[in-house]
Amino acid sequence: MKKQIGLKEAISIGIGGMVGGGIFAVLGLAASLAKGGTPIAFLFAGTLALLTSYSYVKLSQTYPDRGGTVKFINQGFGISVFSGAMNNLLWLSYIIMLSLYASAFGSYAPNLFTITANKTIDFHIYASGIIILATAINYYSIAVVGKIESYAVIIKLVILLAFIAIGAYGLMGNPNVAQLSIAHWENPIKLFAGGMVIFVAYEGFELIANAAPDIANPQKNIPRAYYYSVGFVIFLYIIIAIVTVGSLPFSEIASAQDYVLAQAAKPMLGQMGFTIITIAALISTFSAINATLYGGSRVNFEIAQDDELPHHFLAQLWNQPIGLMITAVATLVLVNILKLENISIAGSIGFLLIFGIVNFVAFKLSKEVNANKIIPLLGFILCIIALFILISQQYQSNLVGILVSIGIIVFCFAIEWFYKKS
Fold it and tell me: Which residue of 6, 39, 156, 258 has the lowest C-beta tally within 10 Å?
């Protein structure tokens, strides 16, 4: 008899999925956009994630399936060009997330050990090397991937909670605390846009959906797993944002944007604090790459099983779905050609669109899933509004990221249309 997943394990899946490389990768970007209102930006993004988690709860309880999001979209729209395009977008969004995590790893690692005299070259070596290592581990043993995840979740949470405790104490008497005042906030539209840029830091809660068939006492534990994990991570991110913005001047946050969390530990613990947070970032981003590679290859396999990708994707390479290798190679390409902010925008746009569609499915099937129609409808409307605000706000400053995002969405529809036609 297969062992079922308890409430603690289910919550760990949600927290582990969210507190991966995301916070280490996007915190500096959020602070540069929202300034003193960074905690509010994280609150905006977290509120949208919490609303969307309601739709995931209802759909997971009614349609428990290891395909998770893929199955929900198919349930709402049938096997069609639209559902196929959305599911392919989900797979490509996993690849974008992998690029984000690898980019964060490449930014933090040279602070511990430089390979060459050029930090840019070191970035590409580390970012590429960690993808190759994680791919090798995924091919070697899925059990090893699981063990790495279970240890990494504990290590990174302990270090982050210690950072919060020491950091909160260190804020007393720090003149930079004044930066958190409303006078240093950006306007509400920019705050909201800043929250949507870093929305990728919350997307991992959807991994609970893939585990739904194995969760014990699902009617009670599925909602608890979603709400507890998302609620905890919202609180965690807001406190981290307060400590970071209250510890460092904005100029220092900007100069250390790609590894700002480590820099924020310096005023409290000096070089030792910087090193400890850097190690936590490396462990977190490595574990996130490891788990997302596994998840991405499985999503690819599920899509092919539903006849939304050619059946060639059901083939095996070294006893793993061929999608694992395709996902890894695509990640290597993206992380070496796109900047961190481009990757973050593309990831946020992808997941905002996907979560908007999942909210719409929960609204459409509200009777079948026993949902209050207003909550998923509100989630859908807010996701669409967030998309438009994010695109309009970033159009001038990050045109490449917007074009990459639109190009990926168009590509997903074109590929699916040609596949269905043929």
Answer: 6
